[in-house]
């Protein structure tokens, strides 16, 4: 998917990317509460990863390590 386009479509792409990451993280048992599609940065789609609890980050790190 082209991450660089009009501001409106870049925002939509960022939101879609955030939604897909949230779904994938949920499959790993993790949630980043602040995860969202943000306004384009330098004309490119952008995702705000935001903050998460230490427990969620440890779980995500463990899940990644198990599959790396």
Notes on the protein architecture:
This protein has 68 residues and is α+β, with helices and mostly antiparallel strands. The chain has one domain (7-66). It is built from two helices and two strands; from the N terminus they run H-E-E-H. The protein has helices at 7-27, 54-67; strands at residues 36-41, 44-48. It has a two-stranded antiparallel sheet with strand order 1-2. A hairpin with a 2-residue loop joins strand 1 (36-41) and strand 2. The protein is elongated, with a radius of gyration of 13 Å. It starts with 6 loop residues before the first helix and ends with a helix. The model has no long low-confidence stretch (mean pLDDT 87).
Assign a percent range to the helix content. 40-55%
Structural class: alpha+beta
User: What is the topology, as strand order, of the major beta sheet?
Assistant: 1-2
**Rough outline:** elongated
Q: How many β strands by DSSP?
A: 2
How many structural domains in the coordinates?
1
What would you report as the Rg, rounded to the nearest angstrom?
13 Å
Beta-strand content? 15-25%
Measured distance between first and last alpha carbons: 25 Å
Helical run tally: 2
Give the overall pLDDT as a whole number.
87
Order of helices and strands: HEEH
Characterize the main sheet. Answer: 2 strands, antiparallel
């Amino acid at each position: 998917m082209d991450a660089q386009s009009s501001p409106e479509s870049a925002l939509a792409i960022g939101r879609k990317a955030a939604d897909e990451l949230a779904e994938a993280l949920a499959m790993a048992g993790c949630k980043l509460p602040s995860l969202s599609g943000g306004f384009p940065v330098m004309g490119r789609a952008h995702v705000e990863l935001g903050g998460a609890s230490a427990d969620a980050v440890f779980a995500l790190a463990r899940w990644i390590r198990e599959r790396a």
